[in-house]
Amino acid sequence: MSHQALSDSLKDLAAEARRRVRESDDPNDRWVWQKQIMVWEKRARDEEGMADFLYAKMEEEKAAQTSHQAVNPPETLQVDKVIGDMTVYRYASEAPNSAGGPRYRSERSVDGRETIPAPLNRFDILDHPPYTDEHPIPMDVALPGGTFYRIQLGAFGSALEPGAFGGITPVTGEHVSDKRLVKYYAGKFSRYDDASTALPRIQSLGYEDAFIVAWYNGIQVSTQKAKQLE
User: Fold this and answer.
1) Which of 213, 227, 217, 183 lies closest to 4 in space, CA to CA?
2) Which of 67, 101, 105, 186 measures 20 to 30 Å from 147, CA to CA?
């Protein structure tokens, strides 16, 4: 996680430097910042690659441990709901995931078919700000299990006003206490393709440095790793 966090920090620095390049009228100043951007972006890629390597190693060790466990651990089926003539069951022995929410539970009907929850794809741009002082931007929300993507709008030294991002919805915030920053994200997606479709719409509003961030079971991973896990 430390390698992924460092990679994200370097990306934030590069994004801030690109803003300085756009605002500077001094060619020498722009050249210096562009050179630094290349250094930060290369190191960010290296750190992200190391994070992927360590994550893959952790998954291999976890798989090796699982192979020594009982093949069919005892589970209890409970009736979840009845829809017409169909009774839907769920397993009752599932433990919560690392993000604090319920882990995905496969549900099977009496005919043995498995029902799969619909993927998350929440994003829109309204003609008015959806957040107010009475209904502020949600902060430090629990993340769902499985693959999860959001689009980072920016990192700021303090919390912003509820209407700072116009009509973008949903927006969530995250306090980064060790850096005294507040990061803001747009959208909630379980598929990378849906997040990448929303990204140009956000960038067209002036957030040119916005980028996609990924998690898996509440742990931040690279987008490449998350796409493999979908």
Assistant:
1) 213
2) 67
